[in-house]
Amino acid sequence: MIMGYPILFHISFLFVPFFILLSTIKVVNGGFSVKMIRINSTKVAHLLDNVQSPTHADLGVHILEMSFGNPSTKYYGIIDTGSDLIWTQCLPCDNCFPQKYPYFDPKKSSTYTNVYCQEDECNLLKESVKGCSSQNQCTYRFSYLDTSITQGLLALDTITLQSSSGGVIPLQYMIFGCGHNNSGGFDEKVMGIVGLGQGPLSLISQIGPSFGGRRFSYCLVPYYADYNLPSIMSFGSGSEVIGDGVVSTPLIKKESKSFYYVTLQGISVGDTYLSFHSSSKGNMIIDSATTFTILPQKLYDQLVEEVKKQVPLQPIINDPQFGDRLCYRTINLEQPIITTHFEGADIQLKTIQTFYQPNFGVFCLAFGSIRSDFGIYGNLAQTNYLIGFDLESELVSFKAIHCNLHQSLV
């Protein structure tokens, strides 16, 4: 957790976690498939619907609402495009963080199935994170840079999403982590993480082939919004981001296959353009579980200096509460407009996407730095944009929209 800013760094995703890189999935008939995923036949009735579920903003992260097991129980997991595993806290909870909802009890789900060490699902785990129990059950241990961990059994069960017609879509034999030993700075509303990366265990890789391809879109509401006023995340056919005002940037393939790499060419503060000094493709990772946008040190320093020039206020200095962050005391900050220039896509960001308010009457720049030649496009900058990830067309698309009004794509 970043000292002095607990309101935003709920799980300390300011810097990239130690993501777990998984093996690639098989190509079948020109599409992608994980062979052991079997979708409940009841989903056929929903083929003309959009597959979707509500999302909520919560203290620096965004939460997807869905259900686990049969009978189904509500589940709230952090939306994470930077990792793959879907996991939830499970009984018996030997060491779990507190949550306001009951822990998932595998014994109460009629569709819960153990995964054994010799089975194909277990082999989807990277060797460095998988193990085998004395009962021959497949075990896992994932860790993140902020020292958060999840450790438990790999299993299969039903995950239920919603449809645009108001019905439900149960998805059987979904691979997930049943976490019996979990720790980290999680809020009590959180029950685990929903991995949405490109690896074979992610939610989108498991369900994409059954719903029109590996595509999904979300619209992240700003943190000031009422938690009970959700937005919508959509999957497969119908999740495409189209229409007036849409801009798109190519996804770049790199060695770390789970991440969504794009190319940032530069940043503008008002009319002043600052070039990204790295000429390499794929120099930014779009990560829905990182709060701030993280830039290489040189570009970050230039951004801070240019914002200082264009904001007609004196920055806060010598206040240990804010450290070396660029902050201003004001009840209203409307300038400057910051534009991120991705390859083929200019994204204009307003104050709500580039500053945060740790206290009433204080605005702080929502960017951080890293000593590297790549950066991270955080979730604050993504708010109030409908963002579509199309793994088939290898594009990420953006459309400006008020996300708290985004209730459906139909």
Main traits of this protein?
mainly beta; Cathepsin D, subunit A, domain 1; 2 domains; 15-stranded mixed sheet; four-stranded antiparallel sheet; disordered N terminus; Peptidase_aspartic_dom_sf; Plant_Aspart_Prot_A1; aspartyl protease; aspartic-type endopeptidase activity
Write the layout of secondary structure elements.
Blueprint: E1 26-28, E2 31-33, E3 51-58, E4 61-68, E5 73-80, E6 86-89, E7 113-114, H1 120-123, E8 130-132, E9 138-143, E10 149-163, E11 168-183, E12 192-195, H2 203-207, E13 215-219, E14 231-235, E15 247-250, E16 261-262, E17 264-269, E18 272-275, E19 284-286, E20 293-296, H3 297-310, E21 327-329, E22 338-342, E23 345-349, H4 351-354, E24 355-356, E25 362-365, E26 367-370, E27 375-377, H5 379-382, E28 385-390, E29 395-400
Parallel strand pairs: 5-12, 6-11, 19-27, 20-26
Antiparallel strand pairs: 1-2, 3-4, 3-10, 3-14, 4-5, 4-10, 6-12, 7-10, 8-9, 9-10, 10-11, 13-14, 13-28, 15-29, 16-19, 17-18, 17-22, 21-25, 22-23, 24-25, 28-29
How is this structure best described in words?
It is built from five helices and 29 strands. The protein is mainly β. The protein has two domains: about 60-210, Acid Proteases (Cathepsin D, subunit A, domain 1, Beta Barrel), CATH 2.40.70; about 245-400, Cathepsin D, subunit A, domain 1. Strand 8 and strand 9 (about 140-145) form a beta hairpin. It starts with about 25 loop residues before the first strand and ends in a 10-residue tail after the last strand. One of its GO terms (molecular function) is aspartic-type endopeptidase activity. Belongs to the peptidase A1 family. It is found in: Secreted. Its main location: secreted. This is Putative nepenthesin.
